[in-house]
Write a structure and sequence with these properties.
homodimer; globular; 5-stranded antiparallel beta sheet; 8-stranded mixed beta sheet; about 30% helix; about 400 residues
Chain lengths: ~400, ~400
Amino acid sequence: MVSLEDLKSLAIPAQTKIVLLVLDGLGGLPRPGDGWTELEAARTPNLDKLAAQGNLGLADPVAPGITPGSGPGHLGLFGYDPLQFRIGRGVLEAAGIDLEMTERDLAARGNFCSVDAAGLITDRRAGRISTETCARLAELLEKIRIPGVQLIVRPVREHRFVVLFRGDGLEEGLSETDPQQVGKAPHPVHAELPRAKPAADIANQFVAEAGRVLASEHPANMVLLRGFSKYPRLPKLTDIYGVRAAVIAVYPMYRGLAKLAGMQAVKTGDAVADEFATLESVYGDFDFFFVHVKRTDSAGEDGNFDRKVSIIEEADAQIPRLLALKPDVLVVTGDHSTPAAFKAHSWHPVPVLLFSKWCRPDGASRFTERECRTGGIGHVRAAELMPLVMAHAERLTKFGA
Amino acid sequence: MVSLEDLKSLAIPAQTKIVLLVLDGLGGLPRPGDGWTELEAARTPNLDKLAAQGNLGLADPVAPGITPGSGPGHLGLFGYDPLQFRIGRGVLEAAGIDLEMTERDLAARGNFCSVDAAGLITDRRAGRISTETCARLAELLEKIRIPGVQLIVRPVREHRFVVLFRGDGLEEGLSETDPQQVGKAPHPVHAELPRAKPAADIANQFVAEAGRVLASEHPANMVLLRGFSKYPRLPKLTDIYGVRAAVIAVYPMYRGLAKLAGMQAVKTGDAVADEFATLESVYGDFDFFFVHVKRTDSAGEDGNFDRKVSIIEEADAQIPRLLALKPDVLVVTGDHSTPAAFKAHSWHPVPVLLFSKWCRPDGASRFTERECRTGGIGHVRAAELMPLVMAHAERLTKFGA
């Protein structure tokens, strides 16, 4: 894979515009009977027309056989090798509630839990307290004072919260406090790497203080911390390729992931059509647009083949208004497969459609997994798509003389 | 990618002969109207017959989306990963005038320029002096004496020249002296890496001396140096595979690139037919022949679709006399795409045809980008072709027991 440093050295300014349309969990599996995948069963006249004029391919989000979470799935599409750039769960959780992070932040996922008089856990989820209670307790925790560190504690949902430890020299490499069973005391945090020692000390101080602050609360009288992770130092798309990039996504986590890559979040309505209206309204302000459609994935997770088909068709119906903007490069793909038959994220490669006037057309008749298999892009890693996109946008100069 | 060390350990002696026929810039894009690429529009009955019996594929010269210069394009075909083995501009310029280099050489591209009494540049190209004047001034510069270093200074064309600093301990990592604008003084050379310090000192001595030597010349009274680069230590094809390799190419740069890989340059006439006549005449003397046809690329750069078609046809017409030599492996491909529609090198993958009695035939009807997309070689990196070639030539033994 070409390094981001090399890509940066090849990037040249251009006026071209790029749209990356991600139908979350797009890839599918055949249904019984006709053996069609969701994409095959969907009526997609607009995408099919693009398939005839553009290039198709299959992309492995991480590597063959690897089922990605949403983090690695999107990082790959943004051009980062997900095996090299890893996003911890604490950071992902913070991204998921639209919490602004800085490079000085160490994030952790928190649970409120119940402990008995001996400090042994009786309920790892504190009876799933309401989100309102969670918000009130998070405010209490945020008042904890630890010298040299600023604490940001925010509710997520029910018993779940996020804590950011903001300060200098706070490094990754911390063990979790959750013993994963009742009847045990929370583990102390220990540093798995020498450089993580200061952060471990601070996390332990926080847990001890939390126990005091919550002592009179019931059932949420203690906290468990997991997924300690540092804000990832991703080279931003702006720095690498010189593009002004925007994210149009309904769910905060996808906006959060895109912001890590240097994209600017744009406010949008919930419906698929709303997102395309947003694209139209900000089209003059950016060069690169990541448009995220979530519900294909949700339908796949629910095992609802027909609903996934209808959301694909809903997105297809928006393609003409997208093309009216005359993007120089349009990519339609998924961050991973979520076949309705599998009811979960899967490792299956993701169909990719790349459309630009510089394509050497495949002449495919449809945009389906089957046609993608013999497309001109070939079978690639998702992270290899971004250089291809930038090339078609005439944003990369010649390598070597 | 298999390392060159591994390949070397697998190489075994054989009597087989290999021809690598490179039609420079072969890959194309559709023309308006019938949507045919140059290769599709060309009448290539001989290549098509080979396509039916051999294997087709698509090769990315460097990686998807990366447009290669001629250096990386050819290095890939010779089996070197162009991302690992880099050839600097100074070395390429020296190769381009058939200048013999050694591993002790640090090469730079030079411009004669004009400076005023205060030493500020008034013309970065010294009014594009004649090549004859350039040759005379290069001789003057070559007389400069710097202790411990031999200077080789040769004219290229008009104001451009090459200088080789030949000596021990001269390392890469030097900044350029060209400020890229008039009204400024040439920059001093500085070492971007500590080990490049001795080379920087010598380059600065050279520039200072050049100013003295040229003081009375007009308009070429100063020099600018760029692209400082060390002769690359490429393992030679002879050492890796044990082949005696020859290059048949009209343009010196391609001969120079091939010599870096350990090939021996053979004198040839200019026409395509001349190159094949040369191949016939030296066929007994070598095992591996790199035959380079330049004008497909030139036609592409000129945007001349029809001329590119006719040069492809000219090459096709030579295939029978090539086959009469009974090579054990014949590869026909390009070092990159130069679509007439794009008028420049591009990132599009290059069609590859591999013909040998050991092919599992694709049964393709033609040698075109379209057929190559579904060929048995698949979609590979150009550097992956060489092991495949050597395998078909029965020059690689089993890996592992």
